[in-house]
Amino acid sequence: MITETFVFIILAAIVAIFSILSVTTKRIIRAATYLLFVLFGTAGLYFLLGYTFLGAVQIMVYAGGIVVLYIFAIMLTGKTASAGQKSLGMAKRAAALVASLIGAGLLMFAFISHKFVSLSLNAETTNESAAPIKEIGSKLLSSGEGGYLLPFEAVSVLLLACIIGGLIIARKR
User: Fold this and answer.
1) What is the spatial distance between Cα 146 and Cα 149, in angstroms, rounded to a whole number?
2) Burial of 70 (0-12, 13-18, 19+ CB in 10 A)
3) If you average pLDDT over each of 39-43, 79-83, 164-168, which comes out highest?
4) DSSP assignment of 72-107, as one string?
5) Who's near 32: CB < 8 A, 6+ residues apart?
6) Would the pLDDT of 88 be above 90?
7) Distance separating alpha carbons of residues 116 and 126, to the nearest angstrom
8) pTM above 0.70, yes or no
9) How far, in Å, CA of 75 to CA of 13, rounded?
10) How far is CA 74 from the centre of its chain?
11) pLDDT (tens digit, 9 = 90+) per residue, 63-81?
């Protein structure tokens, strides 16, 4: 139990630190790399909770997505670093600070006022309540009632449209 708590704290710290770094960096390739570490940390949390299928999907889908993000970052910007960005004015910085403080206050209010259910990190308890992989696979590939084939295909067409749009924008530059 102590080991699981220690691993959770490390993974949570990785996710928190790299998510802050991915938002605050000015270089697009570094932001994508930090985002990759955030997604790997999230997958680690899934593995820790006993959701191995979800963790594996997290790694496969989002690691591929980050590779596509790298390609678009290089194609659309034409360089790996964003040079020549103007610094924000004082009014914009003050507005961003106020918005951040309001968001942090709302988040703290939600944490303090909500009584969270104590979750056990024990793998035996989480695996009993999890859906079997065979059921998840049949739902994903089913086109009948309760199936997710149509939304899955709609998302794939949307991603294809985004790729084509990115290529058109990149060719016009």
Assistant:
1) 9
2) middle
3) 39-43
4) HHHHHHSSSS--SPPPPPHHHHHHHHHHHHHHHHHH
5) 22, 66, 69, 70, 73
6) no
7) 17
8) no
9) 32
10) 21
11) 777 777 777 777 676 654 4
